[in-house]
Write a structure and sequence with these properties.
The protein has about 160 residues and is α+β, with helices and mostly antiparallel strands. The chain has one domain. Helix 1 runs parallel beside helix 4, helix 3 packs antiparallel against helix 4 and helix 4 runs antiparallel to helix 5. The N and C termini lie far apart (about 45 Å). It is found in: Cell membrane.
Length: about 160
């Protein structure tokens, strides 16, 4: 299971860093600001100094270092969990989360902020600008939650029915 998790994490990390390299150097989105791709999707350049949804954005100069340390601890815990994963689905989800976290740590160490550029919006509703790493983290967490719910339901249906005589 560990190999699969590491493979998923590696794929996410490479996709994340390659997309950010292209956004910064190929497309030069910082100079362009925003590009409409579809009626519901733009590439919009945002330097995120916080974490998900810009939380903890006001931590000052120590922010990137503090957030990096927290992310390193989280990745270590994810790797320990991955080693004990019982299913390929869980191992892959943990790998996706770890790969995304590492991708965002690389940005914080290189730039002092995370490169965000995917902006979804529809009918006046606008989602926060995010990146490939963020999407992998959210999908990985969603898979873990779904797996946990399905596992509990399966355990509940396998439980013996009490005798009510």
């Amino acid at each position: 299971m560990m190999r699969l998790g590491l493979l998923c994490g590696g794929v996410v990390l490479v996709a994340d860093q390659a997309s950010k390299y292209w956004i910064l150097n190929g497309l030069d989105l910082p100079a362009l600001g925003s590009i409409a791709l579809l009626p519901v999707l733009n590439f919009t350049m945002v330097w995120n100094h916080g974490v998900t949804f810009g939380m903890f954005n006001g931590l000052g100069r120590t922010g990137p270092l503090l957030l990096t340390l927290v992310a390193v601890v989280v990745v270590a815990l994810l790797l320990a969990w991955m080693r004990r994963a019982r299913t390929r689905l869980v191992a892959g989800a943990l790998g996706a989360i770890a790969g995304g976290a590492i991708g965002n740590v690389i940005d914080r160490l290189r730039f002092g902020a995370v490169v965000d550029f995917i902006h979804a919006h529809v009918f006046g509703w606008s989602w926060y600008v995010f990146n490939v790493a963020d999407a992998a983290i959210v999908c990985g967490v969603g898979v873990l939650l779904l797996d946990s719910l399905l596992d509990r339901r399966a355990a509940a249906t396998d439980a013996p029915v009490p005798d009510r005589r």
